[in-house]
Each structure stands twice: as structure tokens, then as C-alpha cells.
Specification:
With 107 residues, the chain is mainly alpha-helical. It is built from five helices and no strands. It has one domain: Tetratricopeptide repeat domain (Serine Threonine Protein Phosphatase 5, Tetratricopeptide repeat, Alpha Horseshoe), CATH 1.25.40.10. It is 68% helix and 0% strand. It starts with 19 loop residues before the first helix and ends with a helix.
């Protein structure tokens, strides 16, 4: 049975490895992509959401929440091995996040 994605709105941040100007530019690109990905999920267009999350992770691969959302989308697409890898990456980045841990257990 497919699950309904229960994603919370997240505050996006960019890695401290970027300069302040660069971080601001990257964040200005990430926020609209994230909003589009969430809209795609609401339409249950998980393939589109996945492409958008991949674009975000190309800009900043250290966003644990985006890795979590990517894992949930992959789960919905029945791409369980890839989902598990995404959940593991999210847990490596932010061990305190509950969702990736729960889905690692499910997988």
C-alpha cells in the first residue's frame, strides 16, 4: 500500500562552505525548486518531484531534509534500494531526523 507523503515544510539552509553571496544565490535557486517539488508531490507526480530534488541536491548536497524527501519520493516510485540510500545519506547529515530512521527500518 502506498503511503501518503507526510512531509513537513522545512527551512532550507545552505552549507557554510559557500561564501555569503554564493550562499544567498544558491538559496534563491533552491527555494523555488523546493516549492515546485512539493507541488509535484501533492499532484502525486513523484517523477517530477524527484527531478526537482535532484536539482536541489546538485546545488547543495548537504541538505538532509531534501535527501529525506527524495527518499520518500523514491519509496513512492517503488525504487526501494535508492530510497534506502537517500535515507542513509539524510541520517549521516542529520542523525536527529526521525523520518529517515523510520524509513530505514521499514526498508
Amino acid at each position: 500500500m502506498k503511503i501518503v507523503l507526510w512531509l513537513q515544510a522545512i527551512t532550507l539552509f545552505v552549507s557554510l562552505s559557500f561564501s555569503q553571496d554564493s550562499a544567498t544565490q544558491i538559496q534563491s535557486k533552491i527555494v523555488p525548486l523546493f516549492q515546485q517539488a512539493r507541488q509535484a508531490e501533492q499532484r502525486r507526480d513523484f517523477a517530477a518531484a524527484l527531478r526537482l530534488y535532484d536539482q536541489i541536491l546538485h546545488l547543495d548536497s548537504n541538505l538532509a531534509e531534501v535527501w529525506t524527501n527524495k527518499g520518500l519520493v523514491l519509496y513512492e516510485l517503488n525504487r526501494h534500494g535508492e530510497a534506502l540510500a537517500a535515507f542513509r545519506r539524510a541520517s549521516e547529515l542529520r542523525p536527529q531526523l526521525l523520518t529517515p530512521l523510520v524509513f530505514q527500518g521499514i526498508e
